Sequence to fold (83 residues):
Amino acid sequence: MLLQLLKFQLNIEYLPGKKIYLADTLSRSYLETPLTPAELNVNDDIEVTVHTIIHVAPISDRMMTVFRDATQQDHTLSQLRTS
Fold:
């Protein structure tokens, strides 16, 4: 979700619960079994967003190499890459 929101300029303002007139449906409704990425159909969106960031990000080739190497060495991030 954060990757998809990068294209927007957001201003976030905290409101106490008593000032939120409509309850946040997503915070009160949940699924008994989580949906798989295929069911959510998010893989294509994520792939497009990642490629867009890679091509538009103001990062040098050297720093991109450092970033890729660090990602491969990180256990969690390397699992995400193979998922």
User: Anything to note?
Assistant: The chain has six helices and no strands. The mean pLDDT is 76.
